[in-house]
Amino acid sequence: MITIDAIGIDCPKPVIMAKKELDKMAEGVVEILADNAVCVQNLIKLAESNGFKYDHKQESEDRFIVHIYKNEEGSSGDEVKTSQPVNDDFTIAIGSRYFGDGDDVLGEILMKSFIYTVTETEPLPKTIVFYNSGVYLTVKDSPVLDDIRVLAENGVEIISCGTCLDFFGLKEELAVGEISNMYTIYEAIKNAGRNMVIG
Question: Which residues contact 70 (CB under 8 A, 6 or more apart)?
Fold first, then answer.
C-alpha cells in the first residue's frame, strides 16, 4: 500500500498525487490522508471515473482517510483507463491573467491551480496561446512562470500575442515561448482537433 500525506495540501494536488501513484502500479492500494471533505470528494470522483473501488472514513473534524483500490478484486470490472500520448492535437487559449470573472485574488489562485493541473495531466496540449491580459502569465514575475516553462520543456508550444504584449508594454519582459500574430493564433486554434478557450 502506498500512503500519501495530503494534509495541508490544496486541491487539485492530492488528486494528482494519487493519480500518479495509481498510474505507476499494476495493482494495489493508494491511501490518502486528507484534512477536508472537498478533497475527499475529489478523490472519490477520481476513483469513480477510473472504475476503482474506494472507501473513506473521517477520524476527526479535520482528518480523513481515503483508500483507492487498483486490482482485480477492488476494481468495478471496467477496463482501467490508460494515459494518452503527450502533446495530443489539443490547444488551450488563455485570454486573461485570471481564471473566471469576479474577485481577482481568487482568479489568480484558480489560474495557478489550472496551469499546475495542466502540467500534471496527460495528454499535454500541443499549444497554449496567451492573448489580451493572458500575456501577463508568460512574462517575468508571472506567478505561473515556472509551470509554463515546464510545459515548454516538455514540448508544448507557448505562443503570446505580440499586439497584446505591445499594448501592455510587456514585449521586453517575455520570459517563455514565442511572440506571434493573430493569424498564427487563429491557425493554432482552428487546426486543433480540440480546443479550450479561457477568458
Answer: 22, 25, 26, 27, 28, 29, 30, 50, 52, 80
Q: Which superfamily, per CATH, for 2-70?
A: TusA-like domain (3.30.110.40)
What fold characterizes domain 90-198?
Answer: Hypothetical Protein Ychn; Chain: A, (3.40.1260)
Query: Per-residue confidence of the chain (199 residues) as pLDDT tens digits?
Result: 999 999 999 878 898 899 999 999 999 999 999 998 888 988 988 888 888 999 999 999 899 999 999 974 544 433 333 333 446 689 999 999 999 988 999 999 999 999 999 998 888 999 999 999 999 999 999 999 999 999 998 889 999 999 999 999 999 999 999 998 887 888 888 888 888 888 7
pTM over 0.70? The answer is: no
Other beta carbons within 10 Å of 67: 19
